[in-house]
Every structure is written in C-alpha cells, then in structure tokens.
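pasting input
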Amino acid sequence: MITKPLTQKRKAESSAIKLLPMLVEAAFWNQKAAMSDVGEKIAAIVEATHPAISKRIRNTLDQNRKPAYLHNPDKLLEFEEARHGFDTVILPESIESDCRSIIQEHHRRGELAPFDLLPRHKILVYGPPGNGKTMLAEAFAFDLGVPFIRVKYGGLIGDYLGSTGRNIQEIMDYVRTGPCVLFLDEFDGIGMDRNDNQDVGEARRITNQLLISIERLPSTCILIAATNVDHLLDSALKRRFDFVLELPKPTEQLKRRCAEKELNPSITPGFNLLYLLDQIARAPFKNLKEVVDHCQRIRRDLVLNNGVGIEDINIRITDSGRLPMPQVVKSRYQRQCEIFDWACSTFGKEIATAPGERIRRFVEEALELAQAAGLCENDIVKLSDFVFSRPVGDIKQEVGQVGVTLLCYAQHIGINADEEENAEFNRLLSMDQLHFQARQNAKASLGIGAACVIELKL
Ligand SMILES: Nc1ncnc2c1ncn2[C@@H]1O[C@H](COP(=O)(O)OP(=O)(O)OP(=O)(O)O)[C@@H](O)[C@H]1O
Ligand SMILES: [Mg+2]
C-alpha cells in the first residue's frame, strides 16, 4: 500500500512528539549522552518528512562541530527561532544572488578547503527600517540549519570602564565554538565612528576590540550586523565585512513582488486579488512592512467579512491623501467645458467642430488604448465588423457606456481613471498649442481630418 505523504508526515510527527519528554528530562539533568541519543532518534524519524529539521538536529549533534560548552553568556546572548528562509524574503535581485552565493559556499565548504579557501561569512546590512534586515539574518540561520543568536544590547554595554570590551570578548569566545548565525542588530550602537563619540576613549577601545574580534571570527560563525544609519559606522570597521548590502526603500517592483506573495491566490481561496498589485505597488508605502500589513488587513477582511471592506481598505491608500494627487482637481463637468474651449481655441472653432472631427479623435485614442493594452489589429477589425452589423444605438446612452466601461477597465488594471484624466487635462492646457496644431496638420496630410491655420506668434 502507498502511504499518502500527509499520513506519513503525521506519523513522523506523532513519533517525534513522544520522544520530547525524554529530551526535556535529559536537558534538565544535563545528561548530554541521553540528549544526543534522543536527538539522533528524532532526526532519523523526521528525516524523510522534515529534512530541514532533521539536518538542523544532526548539525547540532555533529561531534566535530559541537560547541565546546563554555558557559552560555545568558545576559549577553539570546537564542531565537529563525522563522523564514530566503524563499520568503523579498530582496533586490543582486542582494538575493549574493546571499545565495554565501549559502552555497557554506554548504560546499568541503570543496573549498583543499584550495585553502573559506566561505565568506561577515555581512553588514543597512537601510531604512522595515525592509527585511532582520528577516535576512534569520534566513541565513534557517537555510543553513544553524542556531540564530542575537546579541542583547542591554547586557553588552557595561557600566564600568572596559566592561563592554570584555563582554564582546566573551561573546566572540562563545560563538567561535560552534556553527551559528550571530546577529548584531543596531550595530551603530557599538560600531560608531571613533571620531564621532563623546566618550572618545571608551568608544575607541570598543571599536578596536570589535575590529580584532571580527577579524578572528571563524567562518563557521556567520556574522550579520544591521543598522539603519551606516554613515555613522567606523570606516575601518566596514572594511572588515565581506559584504556590505543595502536594503533600500522599496521600488515599485519590490512592493509588487511583496504584495504578490501576500495576496497569492493560494492563501486567498475563492478570491483572486492580483488585480490590486499595480495599485499597491504605486502607493507610497514607506517600507515592505507597510505593504505586508496592508495585505494582511485585506486578507483578514476576506476571512471575517467575505471581502466586503476591501475597496474601503484600498481607498485609504489612494484617497487618504497619501498618493500624490494632482495639484488642481476640477469637477468633471468643468473639465468638459474647458477642454472644449481649448480645442476650439487651438484648432479654430470650425475645424474643432467639423463633422466627425471630435468622434474621430475619440476613436483614435480608444484604439491607442486598445493597442497599449495588447489587443491586435485583427481583434479590432472583428469588433468593428460586429458593431457595424448591429442597429445604431442612442448617442446619450453610448456616451454613458463609454464612460462606465473605461472606469471598469481602469479599476481592473488598478488605475484611478479620474486622476489620470485630470493629469492629462492639466498637461494639455500647459503645453504650447503649436504642438497640437502641427499634429493635426500632419494627420490632415494623410487625409485624416482637416488642416488648421497655424498662427505664428511673433
Ligand atoms: N524584504 C522583505 N520581504 C518580506 N517581508 C518583509 C521584508 N521586509 C520587511 N518585511 C515585513 O516586515 C516585517 C519587519 O521586517 P524586518 O524586521 O526584517 O525589518 P528591518 O529592516 O529589520 O527593520 P528595523 O530596521 O526596524 O529592524 C517582517 O516581519 C515582514 O513581515
Ligand atoms: Mg530589524
């Protein structure tokens, strides 16, 4: 009988859970041999169903790489759970590729060793808050299957002269004994420019100590230092890193990729919200955390209210004044009157109102929109045959239908039609009329519409 993967997974989980009390007891009584035995059993049980967990347990048990247990400097270090791998972190392409190279170098350190090469392991990551510095650090620990250790600043900065330096030494002595990711968040707090600190003497000592410690750190410890303010860092210190990575304010493309992950149809069952991506990408979110929060608000509404509040939630990012709105917003009717006056004044009233002139312009723009949206000429010819095979409609109703159809299309592609119309209106009115007169005459020379008289302004 073929065991279904889900059943197999449940069985493995259930067998592993049964071993947990023994593991806790062994840890409580500091029975290292028993801990190793139980750990190895769990690793074997979950090997097929949870390979990453199995590997992580075996890495820890590996005698050659096992931390020689000094004493765990509890007040200085915190062991945290790494919750994400690189699959879930949205990064600019070049940074993602650097990170994947580092991971590969660690996975294949055995191939580098005979050539006297070591994997690179010192990374400085900087950029404004909320764009994934902490996530990136966690992803290294997750994908390499090693502990994620964060330095606790409260304990690190000592009250007495020299105590911070001693604490740094203690941390480095500890982490050099086993494979791990050591995360120094808000690195500017200790790696500050030696010339830029009030207590210059102590700052110099700390920075010098860091320089030496980082230099001597073995490649089994991946050091990740993060800061929002890289310009405050000592430049000699920066040079000690193998990589200095910037996670900048997100581009439209990054916001789009982030929203695509957060609103993926696999986690919005019954709904396809991908039409919102362009709108979210263009909204002025300061960082990816805001994008994630926004998408989660939408998903919560899906679960609790069947999505009835989605438009409201989205309108908040477009109409709350956070999206740059055009300077002058006139009513639609006012724009209608003014644009007609503008056409009469630009081309002359006779030409602007010549039979078929205005509607030809309209069809031209509609065709350009269709072309920009990817329709091919053949589709348009077929549509034209279809329309002209049917009875003529009422002109007022047709104008209304053109309007609502355009609104519906704009919503589908995540564009605010009113905003775009207003922006174009302002652009036309701000440009030199000669430009439009020349275009009109170029078309007239092809037999489309009438030429207008260009009045030279002296
Ligand atoms: N690059 C990203 N990919 C996916 N989600 C992200 C990303 N950046 C931020 N997020 C979302 O924002 C949250 C906060 O991100 P994170 O803590 O990594 O930011 P940070 O750069 O470390 O910020 P800070 O400077 O405040 O420490 C994450 O838990 C995640 O939900
Ligand atoms: Mg952080």
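fyi Residues 252-319 form one domain.
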